[in-house]
Amino acid sequence: MRTLTELDLPRDKTRRNQGDAPLARETVDPQGGAGTSRAHESAIKHVTGRAAYIDDIPSPAGTLHVALGLSPVAHGRLTRLDLEKVRTAPGVVDVITLADVPGHTDIGPVFPGDPLFADDEISYVGQCLFAVAAESHKAARLAVQAAVVEIDEQPASLDPVAAAEREDFVRPTHTHERGDWRRALTDAPHVLEGEQFVGGQEHFYLEGQACLVQPSEDEGVMVYTSNQHPSETQKLVAEVLGIPFHAVTMEMRRMGGGFGGKETQASPWACIAALVARRTGRATRIRLPRAEDSRATGKRHPFHNRYRLGFDDQGVLAGGEITVIGDCGYSPDLSDAIVDRAMFHSDNAYSLGDARVTGQRAKTHKASNTAFRGFGGPQGMMIIERAMDDIARHLGEDPLTIRQRNLYRQGRDVTHYGQRVEQLGLLHDIVAQLETSSDYWNRRREIAAFNARSPIVKKGLALTPVKFGISFTVQHLNQAGALLLVYTDGSVMINHGGTEMGQGLHTKVCQVVARELGLDLERVRISATRTDKVPNTSPTAASSGADLNGQAARDAACRLRERLFDFASAHFDREAGGLDRESMRLEDGQLVAGIGEAERRIPWGELVQAAYLGRVSLSEKGFYATPLIHYDRATGRGRPFYYYAHGAAVAEVEVDTLSGEYRLARADILHDVGDSLNPAIDIGQIEGGFIQGMGWLTSEELIWNDAGRLVSDGPATYKIPAFGDLPETFNVELLQGHPNSQASIYRSKAVGEPPFMLAISVWSALRDALASLADYRVSPALDTPATPERVLMAAEALRQAQQAPAARPDHAPA
Q: Which GO terms describe its molecular function (predicted)?
């Protein structure tokens, strides 16, 4: 019987190409260490349904089930909360409100503002008022409906621009400023202005928010949770219960998707379940139904962006100003860092010149918006990509030409926040290679000819680059730990602080350990992420999971390896003076010492058994802290990123301008992952990130009604990309021969978030298709998501402008 790897994995490919281009090849290490393509460590479990998630954990006897009482209004004062009928409902064991919390009542992850339960002020539809614990999930859900809730409803603030105008912010405004941007605008031969609304995005993880809490000895709890940041949840549970951190243990084996939605917003449910478990002495479960999950949790931040930029006759930026306004919802959550990252990435891959970038954090009566793949970076990039298209139409140039002229380059290699862009040639090489491999210019000519003879269906083409900074912008989060255990049969267990949400982090970390110890991958196993094995961990976010935890695991493996070398050099062949310590290495499951005829090989199992009998420790901890990074928020300058990951994508679309419907016909991607840790997994991440980004920009529309209630709260009203939305031709290639210039794990680069922004090419291609309606002289406004309705309205606006040229639309460049 062949394995899943043999059946399905393109182990000899660094490109999976559904078109006609040839496949690049790699050398595959049969051991499966880091740098080779191997299947996800849980792949067989995933496809056979044996992978255990939170709801698959058997319930202990007497487990209680929790349902939540949520606010039906967006803003007001809670005047009455009568729960007597709830308490007497069939099957109900306990009912809790804010008054029942023995410890902290505010669980804001960074700044205060997130009460566990609302007590007075109501701030969004879906805010938690109380919780019911019952013998069954059905009984708890029915009991919630018996509550008497009276709220003095008040007008809801739902418009982030209006909130910014009246300075209603969750956190202060922040600014980056470099050079004399006012003079750059005054002296520039051309000045353009533009604005855009960038929609939010529902995480739509397949496994919803879920946890199981069991009371443990003394005052403690054991928490099984679908969670990207177990250490933070451990802290919050302990603070809510009023107990020491060490009394709370978190375990997280895998998530059915996270995308940022379980970085901070998995904590409330664990805190509530822990409260019930400690009060009743019984195990307690919470799992949110999809609609409640959607209403009670935050999304990707919607943004309103503006630019005013000056440029010369060649379209090269001289400078100007950019403003990004994040719709943060009702509380800070992670919005400070998210809007910061939008500011950091408002340049994308281009030198802005002398520029000021301002970030505002608007408060609205919605669930507190939170982390989502890209963490504000995609929203920030959108405004400069709009500007590149607008400049091209204004000057009558192809947008790719304008983009290439503005890429960071020698002499203009410092960002608006003071970080120097290294590996400058990468950006130019990636764009140039993709320009050639995608046959951009021939296709451009063919598309122009097609559009000239096709009055209804229009084609569009766009090539957009990505430059994405890798590191947490909060410095202290850039650290990781690992625990390595070797057993006397030679099998190896690794535990680290990262969490697995399907992205292959555990697989890569196992490959790192296998490579350092010279073992076949099958001899290395990963254990669940637990706070009692590796403490004080950072969230699995910011694309840093493999960078941080891979280095920590490598540190542990290297320390253990050196200890075994020291032991072996003295223990084996004592009569001959021992083994040559300097020539020792681990490979093919053996300790190898000496060269040529003097070479001696000792099986790994024999080495480990001898070390145990020699009372040598076979466990080791590892630690890693990212060097070089720093950022002074007071001056808005520093080096917030250890390095940048790059990429570029070409998208070709076909648009029916009478209906607004369209399809992505082809996508070509060339992406920079340095020296890949696992090419197969990296390609999967690039494909998945691109499609998820395409969904954000085209079909995934969050809709709130005038009362502030989210109405797109399930798959019937919220459209994520499906198999049929994939392009017919989908070419994905990893950039070869460009290892990371920084000392990352084996000179690889992060791959979680950067590919998401490649999908901006699809949005830009839609604008390109629409621009053909005005002979490419007008750059159409197209907010996101660019649904068929928005595309149709943009097409109609262009047609009307063509019919009445004296009444140019406001969004057309002057």
A: 2 iron, 2 sulfur cluster binding; iron ion binding; molybdenum ion binding; xanthine dehydrogenase activity
Structural contact between residues 637 and 418, judged by C-beta atoms closer than 8 angstroms: yes
Structure tokens, 701: 């529309």
Residue 584 DSSP symbol: -
Q: How far apart are CA 302 and CA 300, in angstroms?
A: 6
Specify which residues 152 forms β-bridges with.
77
HEC readout, 468-534? EEECCCCHHHCEEEEEEEECCCCCEEEEECCCCCCCCHHHHHHHHHHHHHCCCHHHEEECCEECCCC
The size of the chain, in residues, is 814
The rounded Cα 557 to chain-centroid distance in angstroms is 28
The verdict on whether omega for the bond into residue 22 sits within 30 degrees of 0, i.e. cis, is no
How far apart are the C-alpha atoms of 671 and 681, rounded to whole Å? 13
Question: What radius of gyration do the chain's Cα atoms show?
Answer: 28
Question: Higher-confidence residue: 807 or 234?
Answer: 234
**Please, what is the Cα angle at 662 between 661 and 664, to 5 degrees?**
160
- Tokens 């210019």: give the residue: 441
Q: What is the mean pLDDT of residues 73-79?
A: 98
Amino acid at 727: P
Rounded to 5 degrees, what are φ and ψ at 44?
-65, -40
Question: Could you give the C-alpha distances from 188 to 309, 316, 399, 633, 668, in angstroms and in order?
Answer: 9, 10, 20, 30, 35
**Residue 288, amino acid:** L
Cα(755)–Cα(777) distance, integer angstroms? 31
Tell me the HSE value of 9 on the side-chain side, using a 13 A CA sphere: 21
Distance of CA 422 to the CA centre of its chain: 23
- Tokens 């949770």 -> residue: 225
Q: State residue 9 phi and psi, 5-degree precision.
A: -95, 130
The rounded distance, in Å, linking the Cα atoms of 794 and 770 is 7
Residue 322: count of CB within 10 angstroms of its CB:
26
**Token pair of 771, please?**
């621009």
The answer to whether 237 and 223 have CB atoms below 8 angstroms apart is yes
Angle between helices 424-437 and 440-453 (to 10 degrees): 50
Using DSSP, state whether 163 is helix, strand or coil.
helix
Q: Which residue has the tokens 């496994």?
A: 207
What's the Cα-to-Cα distance from 611 to each of 311, 415, 519, 604, rounded to whole Å?
68, 53, 17, 11
On whether the CB atoms of residues 512 and 34 are closer than 8 A, the answer is yes
Task: Based on the residue annotation, tell me whether 251 is a catalytic residue of this protein.
Answer: no
> What are the φ/ψ torsions at residue 794 (nearest 5 degrees)?
-65, -40
DSSP-derived secondary structure letter, 247 = G
**Most distant CA pair in the chain, distance:** 99
| Catalytic residue (one of 165, 167, 753, 796) | 753
Output b/e per residue, 90-102; b: 16+ Cβ within 10 A: ebbbbbbbbebbe
pTM of the entire predicted model: 0.94
Q: Is the CB of residue 358 less than 8 Å from the CB of residue 737?
A: no
pLDDT in tens, 99-120: 999 999 999 999 999 999 999 9
Tens of pLDDT, residue by residue over 420-462, are: 999 999 999 999 999 999 999 999 999 999 999 999 999 999 9
Distance CA 563, CA 25 (A): 37
| pLDDT score recorded for residue 580 | 87
User: Could you read off the pLDDT of 26-65 as tens digits, one per residue?
Assistant: 333 447 889 999 999 999 999 999 999 999 999 999 999 9
Using one digit for the tens of pLDDT, what is the confidence trace for 671-719? 999 999 999 999 999 999 999 999 999 999 999 999 999 999 999 999 9
Question: pLDDT class for 577, splitting at 50, 70, 90?
Answer: low
Strand partners, 304: 197, 325
Q: What pLDDT digit, counting tens, does each position of 458-502 carry?
A: 999 999 999 999 999 999 999 999 999 999 999 999 999 999 999
No. of H helices and E strands in the chain?
20, 30
Name all domains of the chain by residue range, CATH numbers in brackets. 42-53+479-625 (3.30.365.10), 61-154+209-287 (3.90.1170.50), 303-473+633-803 (3.30.365.10)
